[in-house]
Design brief:
It is a single chain. The chain is mainly beta. It has a single domain, classed as Nucleic acid-binding proteins (OB fold (Dihydrolipoamide Acetyltransferase, E2P), Beta Barrel). It has a five-stranded mixed beta barrel. Strand 1 and strand 2 form a beta hairpin. The radius of gyration is 16 Å and the shape is globular. It starts with a helix and ends in a 5-residue tail after the last strand.
C-alpha cells in the first residue's frame, strides 16, 4: 500500500462531530459544544445531551457562534483530543 492509501484508511475510522463554538479565547484552541438528541428508552421522551470538546484550530479561524466540524485526533495537550476540520457556517456579525 502507498503512504497516501494508509493515511486515508486511518482517517476513515475517526469520529467526526458537528457543533457550535462557545469559546475562542485560547490561542489555537476552540471549545465546541456538541448537542446530541436521542429518545429515552423507558420514557420515550426526547433528551438533549450536551458535551464540550477542546479542538485544535492552528489558524485561529473559528469564532464564537460558528458551526464547525471537528475530527478525532491523537492527544495534542492535556485536554485537546480533537482537530478543527472545517467551518460549516459562519455566525452573523454583530
Amino acid at each position: 500500500m502507498t503512504d497516501a492509501t494508509q493515511t486515508q484508511k486511518r482517517e476513515r475510522h475517526k469520529r467526526v462531530l458537528t457543533g457550535t463554538v462557545v469559546s475562542d479565547k485560547m490561542d489555537k484552541t476552540v471549545v465546541v459544544q456538541v448537542v446530541r438528541r436521542y429518545r429515552h428508552p423507558k420514557y420515550k421522551k426526547y433528551v438533549h445531551e450536551r458535551a464540550k470538546y477542546k479542538a485544535h484550530d492552528p489558524t485561529n479561524d473559528a469564532r464564537v457562534g460558528d458551526t464547525v466540524r471537528i475530527v478525532e485526533s491523537r492527544p495534542l495537550s492535556r485536554n485537546k483530543r480533537w482537530r478543527l476540520q472545517s467551518v460549516v457556517e459562519r455566525a452573523p456579525l454583530s
